[in-house]
Amino acid sequence: MKSLLFYVLPFILASSAFGQISDTPKPVDNKAVSAQNPLLKMAWKTPFDAPIYRLAIADTAGDGKPRLIALLQEGNNALRLSVYRWDGKTFISEWSTPVEKSVTAMAVGRFAPGVPSAQIVTAQGCYLWDGKEFTLKPFSRPLAPVGIVRHREGEESLLAREGGEYAVYAIDPKGVGDDWLVPGKPLTPLGAAGEMDYLFGLLRAAPTELEAGTPPEYAAVGLLGLWDVRRDGKPLRFLGRYSSRSNDAGSHLVFAQEFSSNAIKEVWRSPGLDGPILDVALGDPKGEGKEGLLVLAVDPKSKGRVLYLFVADKT
After folding, report:
1. Chain centroid, CA 295 distance in Å
2. Number of CB atoms found within 10 A of residue 11's CB
3. Beta bridge partners of 71
4. pLDDT in tens, 48-102
């Protein structure tokens, strides 16, 4: 078990891919830089009726088809875990179950080596697809999923918090009790040329935990990630951003190169989103051959949700 800092470091270590970490990054017009560096483009935007606050994209049935997995809050503070699929026109629910009020986070991925279907992990335990339905393997001790890492070879690791410490896990579906939760593939340092073993990584943390390394308007979103957009072995860091300052207000997905607790040097910024970002996931949610970052944001007018898919700009 290790502290959060140990797991945040791979996301913020200086390298040729990331630039130097500085206490005082040089002033830069972040919006102008984004316009000059067309890293991503918006593939589509669609409203989502359900009040979801966490999402993931994965093949949870092992049939090669992506699903959108979501935690949502219903009336009277009731919580529900749901799995959706795209039917060509909209996302329809194909499975749903109530969850305990302690379930405020989840991680979804192929954490069990050799198993074709992805596993859904919440604070209650792990949901496994048995070919007909999901079965829950409960935790016997408090464990909170906080992130996921997708390694270059295709393996995926679960990042979770137990008490005040963090660890990387894999899943053994044949295990009994807590024996099904086993040590995962260790996170590796940078290679000599600045390359990393990760295609994608996402860490969800409290804003107070991220404020040590990012300004408040970025830390407030509670997300820090990596994505090898160019597939060159040098993943770029991304964050959410939300500011109400009159001179730079708005909600954005941001890719950053150099950052500290008081400034960030952005390399790309999305167009303004309708409202604050709630979550981000990597995948192809509609199964149309467009892998990208799916951003979940609040619609402040309707209090509903909006989904945005950002894909690599190859122009």
Report:
1. 9
2. 23
3. 54, 81
4. 989 999 999 999 999 999 999 999 988 777 799 999 999 999 999 999 999 988 7
Residue type, 241: R
What is the DSSP pairing of strand 144-151 with strand 134-138? unpaired
Tell the residue number behind the tokens 């009040």, with chain if given. Answer: 51
Q: What is the pLDDT of residues 246-274, one digit of tens each?
A: 666 789 999 987 777 778 888 999 999 99
Q: How far apart are CA 120 and CA 265, in angstroms?
A: 35
Question: Which of 190, 243, 248 has its CA nearest to residue 214?
Answer: 243
Return the amino acid letter for 273: L
What are the φ and ψ backbone dihedral angles of 34, each rounded to 5 degrees? -60, -40
DSSP H helical ranges for the chain: 4-12, 30-36, 207-210, 216-219
Distances (CA, A) of 35 to 11, 240, 267, 273: 24, 18, 9, 16
Question: Which H/E stretch holds residue 72?
Answer: strand 67-73
CB 61 within 8 A of CB 84: no
- Residue 168 · residue 158 · CB < 8 Å: yes
Give the integer Cα–Cα distance in Å for 88 and 228.
29
Q: How many helices (H) and strands (E) does the chain have?
A: 4, 21
DSSP type of residue 177: G
In the structure encoding, which two tokens stand for residue 230, read together?
């160019």
Report the half-sphere exposure of 54 (CA within 13 A, side-chain side). Answer: 23
How would you label 20-33 residue by residue, b for 16+ Cβ within 10 Å and e otherwise?
eeeeebeeeebeee
What pTM, to 2 d.p., does this model score? Answer: 0.88
| Sequence-ordered list of residues with C-beta below 8 angstroms from that of 314, at least 6 positions apart, any chain | none
Do the Cβ atoms of 106 and 121 come closer than 8 Å?
A: yes
- Give the fold, CATH level 3, of 4-312: Neuraminidase (2.120.10)
Quote the CA–CA distance of 243 and 19 in Å, as a whole number.
Answer: 25
Per-domain residue ranges for the chain?
Answer: 4-312
